[in-house]
Amino acid sequence: MFKDEPAIVGEEQRHDDVGARMANGEETNINPELIRREGFASEAEYEAYLATLGRDASIPVEAYIEEPFVVSQEHVLESRLRELREELENLRARLHVIKDQTAAVVTENVRWADASAHAQLGNQPWLKLAGAMAAAFVVTRGIRRLPLGTVATTALPLVAAAMNRKFARG
To answer: Which end of the chain is more exposed for a tag (fewer CB within 10 A), N or C?
Structure first.
């Protein structure tokens, strides 16, 4: 299929003036004076084409601006204040997410500790743990009341004699 020929097979394909396929078969709204399919016949035609293209470019930018935009100090401060408020809202939202995550982590750790205690100590693990701590307290108090100084003084020569016998054999 060539540029200006319709398709032979299937549905007829529509092209715009530069040969690009059009969506939904619609025409483009490009100025046909600005579209060229082939080269120029003369230098004058080329200059006329460039003049057509540059017609809008020759209008100064100031013609499109109604009045110059003056930025006042108050406007700058209001803009900065708005930015800071948006940043503060963003930080508050992030802090809220962090608080929720922290609460979830603490809750999950408590669940894990409870499940671990149940796995190790069976039913009523905290009661068994409290009983073990109370027994350790009572035994420690009892050991402190024993006259260990006298016992150690009496047992020390016996331990030394046993060690001497062991070294004498070996």
So the answer is: C
